[in-house]
Amino acid sequence: QSALTQPASVSGSPGQSITISCTGTSSDVGGYNYVSWYQQHPGKAPKLMIYDVSNRPSGVSNRFSGSKSGNTASLTISGLQAEDEADYYCSSYTSSSTLLYVFGTGTKVTVL
Amino acid sequence: EVQLVESGGGLVQPGGSLRLSCAASGFTVSSNYMSWVRQAPGKGLEWVSVIYSGGSTYYADSVKGRFTISRDNSKNTLYLQMNSLRAEDTAVYYCARARGYSGYDFGYWGQGTLVTVSS
């Protein structure tokens, strides 16, 4: 079981929208609605931003939204702000024989 | 308020052992899905192990047979016993709780504890 595939970096100007993709297989992303997204600032613990594909935990800005199509999930950040600059990871439950949860490779978001 | 505080990390020689602890407050460990997730220096996140509220445990193949997840209900604490440690186990280890009682996500995280395996 390999990590889910994410672009290494995505950038945008303040106010713009960006989308981060997360590609897996029918054994993980495509097979379950258990995709979640995490934001991690340098030296800090990850923070849950989206769970169950498209749900936002209480306290997370509605500028963050999630979706899924087939084996690919996506995180969209609208109205990009300076504080959104961070690493983002997707995760999925998986029916793999080697693990139960799999993370994405991570995406560095840069606000220009 | 949910809080998770890890401890027990440090420097250990290859082949050695270490036990990590995760003290929880604001909720009951035994009623929730609890996981360990690690992050090697400069690398991405890697799921390590989970213990479900019913007591079932699961491990990533990379640690199966060497690591053991457990909990002490009286202390409301999660543990990770790590044996036969290898250089590739060097990482910050986070304990995490699912957002809900049985969610398949990592809604709450501790601050992490660094484990360094080196001679």
Overall average residue pLDDT of chain B: 96
DSSP helix fraction of chain A: under 10%
Along the chain, the helix and strand elements of chain A come as EEEEEEEEE
The secondary-structure class of chain A comes to mainly beta
Radius of gyration of chain B: 13 Å
Number of strands of chain B: 11
The first-to-last residue Cα distance of chain A is 35 Å
Instruction: Average the pLDDT over all residues of chain A and give the rounded result.
Output: 96
Unreliable segments of 5+ consecutive residues of chain B:
none
- What's the overall geometry of chain B? globular
**Main structural class of chain B:** mainly beta
**Strand count, sense and closure of the main sheet of chain B?**
7 strands, mixed
The tally of beta strands of chain A, per DSSP, is 9
Furnish the topology, listing elements before pairings.
The complex is a heterodimer of chains A (112) and B (119).
Chain A: E1 9-12, E2 18-23, E3 35-40, E4 47-50, E5 64-69, E6 72-77, E7 86-93, E8 101-103, E9 107-111
Parallel strand pairs in A: 1-9
Antiparallel strand pairs in A: 2-6, 3-4, 3-7, 5-6, 7-8, 7-9
Chain B: E1 3-7, E2 10-12, E3 18-25, E4 34-39, E5 45-51, E6 57-59, E7 67-72, E8 77-82, E9 91-97, E10 108-109, E11 113-117
Parallel strand pairs in B: 2-11
Antiparallel strand pairs in B: 1-3, 3-8, 4-5, 4-9, 5-6, 7-8, 9-10, 9-11
Q: What would you note in describing this structure?
A:
The complex is a heterodimer of chains A (112) and B (119). Chain A is an all-beta fold and 112 residues long. In chain A, 0% of the residues lie in helices and 43% in strands. In chain A, strands 1, 3, 4, 7, 8 and 9 form a 6-stranded mixed β-sheet that branches. A 3-stranded antiparallel β-sheet of chain A has the order 2-6-5, with no helix packed on it. Chain B has 119 residues and is mainly β. Chain B is 0% helix and 49% strand. In chain B, strands 2, 4, 5, 6, 9, 10 and 11 form a 7-stranded mixed β-sheet that branches. The model of chain B has no long low-confidence stretch (mean pLDDT 96). The A-B interface holds A 3, 32, 34, 36, 38, 40, 45-48, 51-52, 57, 89, 91, 93, 97-106 and B 35, 37, 44-47, 50, 58-61, 94, 99, 103-112.
